[in-house]
Here is the input.
Amino acid sequence: MKKEAVIAIIFGVSLGAIFGFFLISKNKEIQINKNKVIAPTNSAVKNQKQNEVNFQALEVEEPNDAFITGKDTIQIKGKVTKGSLVVIQSPIKEVVFRNEQESFKSDFPLALGENSIKIVAYPNDKLMNIQEKELKIYYLQEDL
Amino acid sequence: MKSKLIYSLVLAIVLGIAGFIGQAVLAQTASPSAEVSVSSASADKKAVEDLKEKVANKVAEIRKKDIRAVAGKAISISSNSIKIKKDNESEYEIKIDEALTKYFKISGDTQKEIKKDDIEKNDYIIVSGVITDKTVTANSIFVDQPYIVENGKITEVDKENYNITVLTADKSNYKLSIEDTTKQQIVDIKTLNVNKSGFSKIIVGDSVHFVTKSSPSEDGFYKADKILIVPQEYFMK
Here is the structure.
């Protein structure tokens, strides 16, 4: 083979490789531009952030579950998202209130024996889920 | 000269240690002096009594702290133990001390002492005592009436038979029969006061909070002890 032919082949292969590389990278760019990301609007993002900031999961700070007491009343203390409708129910009593502050407390009567107490919070924001907690409190008359 | 100095230094250290140990041993084995006065002996006795009392109080305090309660259905009863099953299916073994364990039956707002033989299989019992893993050393055992306190959305209202179906958050369906004795209440959506209500005011889609005794009838209905309706209008505001 002549020297000129070898040079021409090498030159051709190199040029082909450069052209191929250019085509692949250009194609990738076109594909990325075609796939548009649908982002939420600024106000939606702001509202979501606001909800995240305001959200407070229902927490019962007092009393602990399976608490034993010798008294016929107990104070229930907890936290939940501001403005939630809170319903506390047991076999002998129900208390309904809207908690204006994040934390709440309520004096609650107890029956002798086991007291199943259900605490349910309905958040003001319909997008938030209803939250529930159940406590078993024991009012027992015994010499410990 | 140098080695002599080292020997004498080692000897001095050994003698020093021996002297120190000897003094300590002598101090320990020395007989009490006959001169100890009667007043100091009584003061010691008082101090010991005080210490005993303090220890006893501390033990009682710790014991009181450790006492917890567990409740469930009695599934087997033997002479010195009872096995109970909780709502969540976990089982506990209740150890009974013949001399210490007391038994009571709760009905309404009174409790009366009973005997162990009065406890029957399937009775719902509350046990107070020291809980270690799944074993409870029982102080007291109370036979009580269990209740279900639940809430959910009303999915069906049977106006002919006075029944409602409730779907709870954990996707359980409760069929409730509303009896003459059922206490029916509704939340006023403006004032949030709890008012008396009637069956005609119950609408599919309302939220309901209910209390029922734990065992359903053969056809799967729970007799509602009380219901509290939160009208759906409250959530539309």
